[in-house]
Amino acid sequence: MIQLNNVTASFNGHNVLDNVSVQINPGEFVFLVGQTGSGKSTLLRLVYMDVTPTKGNVIVGKYNSETVQQSEKPYLRRMLGIIFQDFRLLEDRSVYDNVAFTLHVTGTPAKDIKKSVLHALADVGLSHQRNKMAHELSGGEQQRVVIARALVNNPTFLLADEPTGNLDPATSLDILQLLKGINMRGTAVIMATHNHELVKKMNARVIEIRDGKLVEVKNF
Ligand SMILES: Nc1ncnc2c1ncn2[C@@H]1O[C@H](COP(=O)(O)OP(=O)(O)O)[C@@H](O)[C@H]1O
Ligand SMILES: [Mg+2]
Questions:
Q1: Which of 138, 141, 152, 199 is the most exposed place for a label (fewest CB within 10 A)?
Q2: How many helices (H) and strands (E) does the chain have?
Q3: Which of 211, 215, 207 is nearest to 33 (CA)?
Q4: CB 10 within 8 A of CB 54
């Protein structure tokens, strides 16, 4: 479970989020919308505890932003698959290695790495491309690798920050459908986007950030 309780988040004295509360449960699909600069990325960064609230608290599973230790954050983040706005792959490494990379860093045993990576690549429909170099793939395929990398720890929540920001409309729809499939298999998805056309294509919960407040949007 993710909870924001009366959270204010400020930069240089300006409240990006102003006393907001929201709960997101395992298994949900949530769109997070709002104009550029409205605070979508900030909200996601609060959830993975890269930004600390100025007031209020954020609870993710057993972790609370008021008490979490720096040393606990890697464990917290294993519950969260994170797709950053400016996704980066290691261009000169294979698809397989890109997905395996984080597991090597965290010291996962080799046989578990192989199983997890092949599973994540199957989830995004890229098993057949696993030996290609990242730079040999199309933009949409590269974004699938990024999603596989985020899924490799089998997270409870997938946080996707503008995952279709650099993609054409058809490829964006493919990625949305992929995320929907991942959600149907049990992973909660929180997707920040300002692409209204995409949001309208799916019947999901929509939370809009408007002037620092959160508004649950019905019938988007
Ligand atoms: N690290 C930071 N330092 C200062 N200001 C920031 C920082 N991160 C975000 N902001 C400001 O907070 C506001 C919200 O940014 P952001 O969360 O990135 O919005 P969005 O993702 O909706 O475009 C913007 O005005 C941005 O300039
Ligand atoms: Mg953003």
A1: 138
A2: 7, 10
A3: 207
A4: yes
Q: What is the pTM of this model?
A: 0.95
**CA dihedral of residues 14, 52, 78, 72 (deg, nearest 10):** 170
Rounded (10°) angle between helices 95-105 and 139-151: 30
Centroid of ligand 1 to alpha carbon of 39 (angstroms)? 6
Q: Which atom of ligand 1 lies at the shortest distance from residue 38's CA?
A: 22
Task: List residues near ligand 1 (CB under 6 A).
Answer: 11-12, 16, 34, 36-42
Q: Which residues pair with 208 in a beta bridge?
A: 33, 215
How far apart, in whole angstroms, are the C-alpha atoms of residue 207 and residue 185? 22
Of 32, 5, 81, 63, the C-alpha closest to 194 is 32
Q: What is the pLDDT along the chain (220 residues), one digit of tens a residue?
A: 999 999 999 999 999 999 999 999 999 999 999 999 999 999 999 999 999 999 999 999 999 999 999 999 999 999 999 998 877 899 999 999 999 998 988 788 988 999 999 999 999 999 999 999 999 999 999 999 999 999 999 999 999 999 999 899 999 999 999 999 999 999 999 999 999 999 999 999 999 999 999 999 986 7
For ligand 1, mutation pick of 41, 46, 52, 85 (most atoms within 8 Å of CB): 41
Q: Which two tokens stand for residue 198?
A: 């995409």
What is the distance between the alpha carbons of residues 195 and 80, in angstroms, rounded to a whole number?
23
- Check if the beta carbon of residue 193 is closer than 8 Å to that of residue 217: no
